[in-house]
DNA sequence: CGCGTTTGACCGGCGC
DNA sequence: GCGCCGGTCAAACGCG
């Protein structure tokens, strides 16, 4: 039961309102998300093709989760059943039943809220203040880069994320969070630098969030390619977007591994990126 | 020894 | 009905 609650049970809209598939989700990212340079190159990157018609486009590859989104949610039914995924896995391990995971009973579950970030970074797996355990990696069609699947290591938390590189621009990492953390961030065991990056992301997200909420252009899919010509500001400029359908908040930001500053350069953020992106009303705890 | 990653197999949805 | 494909599982492995 805890899984349901902490997994997004408080999400203010139903699964029906969620994106039917993530190709639409990513398509939305495509038309909505632009890039801002990192202030170093002084180059404004073009937004991705809004139309998934691009055969080998990153949107296609990135959005290829499409039909399986439901599937994924379905497979997580066990989590929603009251056990977090990690617990489920642990349980299945302790119980040497023949093919424990293979006989999982199917159960529909409401889709978790998702947040996608497009990151121009050399780092594949961005630290966001939470600890993640990789549970899978898959080659994605039309993309030379594999997609990695991570799950929050907190056994009460069902949050997952997918990380993949854009096939169009290998320097762009698409990170998709699914679910909401029901706990605070852990300490950063993997280095303060990465943690600082996460802090910067969260900090920037928090600031730009409000700013972009008021941009009508962002809310109109008919708007011609709303490239967010925000002047280069910092190495961690973030562009969260509010899509009309709310289920998705998309942000793209630019950073560089080498630009990670020392701890303390950014106001302390004791919550992770996701927490920062989630409106307080949507938060659970 | 504990924890995280790798990797091949499996499952189920969806399109044709 | 079949094949494709994304998502997940879980054993094996690696690392600190």
Compact overview of the structure:
The protein has 285 residues and is α+β, with helices and mostly antiparallel strands. It has helices at 2-9, 22-32, 58-62, 68-75, 77-80, 85-94, 192-213, 216-219, 273-277; strands at residues 114-120, 132-139, 146-152, 160-165, 172-178, 238-242, 248-254. The chain has a domain at 112-120 and 129-176: N-terminal domain of TfIIb, CATH 2.20.25.80.
Record keyword descriptors for this entry.
alpha+beta; seven-stranded mixed β-sheet; disordered N terminus; N-terminal domain of TfIIb; DNA-binding; globular; 285 residues
Task: Write structural notes for this entry.
Residues 121-186 form the WRKY domain. Helices cover 27% and strands 16% of the residues. It has nine helices and seven strands; from the N terminus they run H-H-H-H-H-H-E-E-E-E-E-H-H-E-E-H. The chain has helices at residues 2-9, 22-32, 58-62, 68-75, 77-80, 85-94, 192-213, 216-219, 273-277; strands at residues 114-120, 132-139, 146-152, 160-165, 172-178, 238-242, 248-254.
Separate helix tally? 9
Fraction in beta strands: 15-25%
Q: How can the largest sheet be summarized?
A: 7 strands, mixed
Strand order of the largest sheet: 2-3-4-5-1-7-6
Mean pLDDT: 49
Shape: globular
What structural category do the secondary elements indicate?
alpha+beta
What is the H-and-E element order? HHHHHHEEEEEHHEEH
Query: What name does the CATH topology of the domain at 112-120 and 129-176 carry?
Result: N-terminal domain of TfIIb
Q: Helix proportion of residues, in percent? A: 25-40%
Do you know the CATH architecture of the domain at 112-120 and 129-176? Single Sheet
User: What's the name of the CATH homologous superfamily of the domain at 112-120 and 129-176?
Assistant: WRKY domain
Radius of gyration: 18 Å
| Strand element count | 7
Our measurement of the CA-to-CA distance between the termini, rounded to an integer number of angstroms, reads 15 Å
CATH class of the domain at 112-120 and 129-176: Mainly Beta
Protein name: WRKY domain-containing protein
InterPro entries: WRKY_dom, WRKY_dom_sf, WRKY_plant
Pfam families: WRKY
GO cellular component, one term: nucleus
């Amino acid at each position: 039961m805890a899984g349901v609650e902490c997994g997004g049970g408080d999400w203010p809209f139903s699964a029906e309102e969620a994106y039917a598939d993530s190709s639409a989700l990513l398509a939305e990212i495509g038309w909505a998300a632009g890039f801002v340079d990192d202030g170093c190159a002084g180059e404004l990157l073009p937004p991705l093709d809004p139309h998934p018609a691009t055969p080998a486009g990153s949107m296609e590859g990135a959005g290829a989760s499409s039909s399986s989104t439901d599937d994924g949610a379905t497979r997580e039914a066990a989590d929603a059943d009251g056990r977090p995924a990690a617990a489920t896995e642990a349980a299945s391990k302790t119980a040497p039943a023949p093919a424990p995971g293979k006989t999982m009973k199917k159960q529909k579950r409401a889709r978790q809220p998702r947040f996608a970030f497009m990151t121009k970074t050399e780092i594949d797996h961005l630290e966001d203040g939470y600890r993640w355990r990789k549970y899978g990696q898959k080659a994605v069609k039309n993309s030379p880069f594999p997609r990695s699947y991570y799950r929050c290591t907190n056994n009460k938390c069902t949050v997952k994320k997918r990380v993949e590189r854009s096939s169009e621009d290998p320097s762009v990492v698409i990170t998709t969070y699914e679910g909401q953390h029901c706990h605070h961030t852990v300490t950063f065991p993997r280095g303060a630098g990465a943690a600082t990056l996460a802090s910067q992301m969260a900090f920037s997200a928090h600031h730009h969030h409000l700013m972009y909420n008021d941009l009508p252009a962002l809310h109109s899919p008919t708007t011609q390619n709303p490239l967010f010509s925000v002047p280069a500001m910092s190495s961690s400029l973030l562009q969260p977007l509010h899509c009309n359908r709310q289920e998705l908040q998309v942000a793209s930001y630019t950073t560089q591994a080498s630009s990670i500053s020392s701890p303390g350069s950014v106001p302390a953020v004791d919550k992770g990126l996701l927490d920062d992106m989630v409106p307080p009303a949507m938060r659970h705890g």
